[in-house]
Amino acid sequence: KLRVELQAFADGTADTASQARRLSLSRALAIRSYLIEQGLVSTRMDVRALGNRFESGPPDRVDVVISER
Questions:
Q1: How many angstroms separate the CA atoms of 52 and 20, rounded?
Q2: In whole angstroms, what is the distance from residue 20 CA to residue 15 CA?
Q3: What is the pTM of this model?
Q4: Cα 22-27-30 angle, rounded to 5 deg
């Protein structure tokens, strides 16, 4: 019943928000591919490319959030 959510971020300004979102998506998909290679079922994962919409922490990162549903 566990689910994994990949929340990806990338640094950018309002003018480069689209580029930041694409970069964050690329990062999240790379992590997703790695986790699938390690045996995690893809239907248990959600990807959120949040681009430059972060409130705290380093801007260039992928957070792995595990929840029970």
A1: 6
A2: 10
A3: 0.86
A4: 125
